[in-house]
Amino acid sequence: MKGFFKGTATAMITPFYKDGGVNFEAFGKMIEYQIANGTDALVILGTTGEPSTMTAEEKTAVMKYAIQKIAGRVKVIFGSGSNCTANAVEASKLAEQLGADGLLCVTPYYNKCTQKGIVEYYKAICGAVKIPVIAYNVPPRTGVNILPATAEELAHIPNMAGIKEACGNMEQICETMRRVRPYCDVYSGDDNLNLPILAIGGAGIISVASNIAPKQVKEVYTHVINGDLESANRVQDAILPLIDACFTEVNPIPVKAGCDMIGLDAGVPRAPLTELEDAHKKIMRECIDKVGIKL
């Protein structure tokens, strides 16, 4: 299926208190910051939200809070992927019941299934729900790569709405786009490649950096859609150092520190992730200042 959403989506962080609990007040402020700056959809409990360190009860509470707080103003997409197909199916069904507009499902990680296993995984998830599903391809994290031929097979599943591409291989992404273009959408899942993926027909961006810079990430999308590549390049060039700063350590360590710097009270990552090192904090602060972002 095509057209589930177009524009920019933020892969939201989950703010935690230092004692470990979810800071819902801070989370609400982050949601309002995103909506005020033109973000079209919010991806909650994706990789950037640290769901692998959260209890089932915490994840349910976050989903319920998000649905209530957002109140239909933008699309809500919940992360529900797993390395266990049965768990992914149950998480997807729960997200649908709680009011999700769509799902983001990462490939099965650690188990390193075959391409056939990838297809069966997504068929099971899509068959269990009626809402749109976006497959998430991020082999540097998962050890599993959705190859273009497999993406084409997935694209024929009725409620498969798109592929979030973060494989880092633009040649592969071009081939995936060629194969799936008539059937489902492709989204940039790598902030460094936002502009080129949009330029070859990407429907939108699912961004980490937009936790800090939602307005600028949306501007890149808007300029490309309007055919103004010169302006798109100008904005992307301006925020590339910030994007790089968001990945000086494993995501979401840097972006949480960056959110703290602009007053969004992101708290600390959960173990085994650690706080951003001082040298990288300096880089992040300089990049934020250079872009001129203020809350």
Describe the structure.
The structure is a single chain. The chain has helices at residues 24-36, 56-70, 85-98, 115-128, 139-142, 148-155, 170-180, 194-199, 214-225, 229-245, 253-261, 278-291; strands at 7-11, 41-44, 75-79, 102-106, 133-137, 160-165, 185-188, 204-207. With 295 residues, it is an alpha/beta fold. The chain has one domain (7-226): TIM Barrel (Alpha-Beta Barrel). Strands 1-2-3-4-5-6-7-8 form an 8-stranded parallel barrel, surrounded by 6 helices. Helix 1 links the parallel strand 1 and strand 2 (41-44). Helix 6 (148-155) runs parallel beside helix 7 (170-180) and helix 11 (253-261) packs across helix 12. The longest helix is centred in the C-terminal third of the chain and has 17 residues, at 229-245.
Count of discrete structural domains:
1
Tally of separate helices = 12
The helix fraction, in percent, is: 40-55%
Mean pLDDT: 97
Main pleated sheet: 8 strands, parallel, barrel
What is the succession of H and E elements?
Answer: EHEHEHEHEHHEHEHEHHHH
Broad structural category: alpha/beta
What is the CATH fold-level name?
Answer: TIM Barrel
Looking at the structure, what is the overall shape? globular
Could you name the ranges where pLDDT drops below 50 across 5 or more consecutive residues? none
